[in-house]
Amino acid sequence: MTLALRTDPGASERILEGLRDWVETESPTDDAGAVNRLMDKAERALRAAGAAVTRIPGRDGFGDLLRARIGPAEGGGILIAGHLDTVWPIGTIATMPFRIEGERAFGPGIYDMKAGSFLALHAVTSLLGQKVATPLPVTLLLTPDEEVGSPTSRELIEDEARRSAYVLIPEPAGKGGAVVTARKGVGRFELEVRGRAAHSGGAFEEGRSAVVELAHQILAIHRMVDPARGITTNVAPIRGGTRPNVIADRAFCEIDLRVASLEDGERMERAILGLRAVTEGCTVTVQGGMNRPPFAETEAIRVLYERARAIAAELGFELPREHRGGGSDGNFTAALGIPTLDGLGCPGGGAHADHEHILWRDLAPRAALLLGLIETLS
């Protein structure tokens, strides 16, 4: 089946037709109704194909979750986890429409990660449609909130991963079609400074500038960067003050932390949460922590990658691997010790940018790769 898909000259075009509908069904994370409209389409396709589907109501303002199972009823199986939410607000499709320019297909969310999630659904429905038996049970999990750290889906992702022998993540492929075998852990924090307001001309010495204190904190956070250890911090956005002639009594910032190891994550979390004011009369409060653990490449992950690379070779293409700084839901599953292969989606570029695109002729080969893994992992 996988080789036939690879050699079918119209397969990528047919997959792209279905993907277009998904791209044009906008699904920003913060609009639960919009995400659910796309979840409805996925549910209908999976039920029509014969999958055992469970729809789990969303909470905390996020959309629903969808779980579909196929294959044997018993044993540790394969979990395929993808998200349907995007960073693009409703209405983006009017100014950034789906379009094809040569080898590229453009549209909001097409690369990150509607193409990958659609490929996963295509794989599951194709197996059911052709009555292909899989050695292991297969679970497809579609989620609504990955772009903001998976606050309502993490628990379910981890529960499903614990029941699985392998996890496949169809996030976007990297340069040259690379899959991902390691990712940095991600921490997110909010820092607030309280100072004392005063007139900047008539009572300057009475004030305690929260903005000045925030500047000290930003420099302290920047000094934590250690590229050799894979540690980076970024402060943005920042805000503070009300008028030029008023000494600011409040200032805020958000902090992004990336680490390569669990130990560094714990150490850096303590350091950031432990920040204290250096300006007399100011206070600093920090909230947050690590929200995605590091995804380290293990021997089991390397073995899984080599299986995928061998399948790709049979299909006629190279499959490099890479370590990536950005996080995904694969961070959660890899941290549990479940062999996880990420970046199985479509090559392209421009994630979260107005030139977001996929190399659409790669849709069929990437679908064949995913199917090859599902059909042979045991």
TrEMBL record:
Coiled coil: none
Top-level division of the source organism's lineage: Bacteria
Recorded GO MF terms: hydrolase activity
Pfam families linked to this entry: M20_dimer, Peptidase_M20
Keywords attached to this entry: Hydrolase, Zinc
Domain Peptidase M20 dimerisation: 181-272
CDD domains: M20_CPDG2
PANTHER family cross-referenced by the UniProt entry: ACETYLORNITHINE DEACETYLASE, BLL0789 PROTEIN
Record-given protein name: M20 family metallopeptidase
Annotated source species: Elioraea tepida
Source taxonomy: Bacteria, Pseudomonadati, Pseudomonadota, Alphaproteobacteria, Acetobacterales
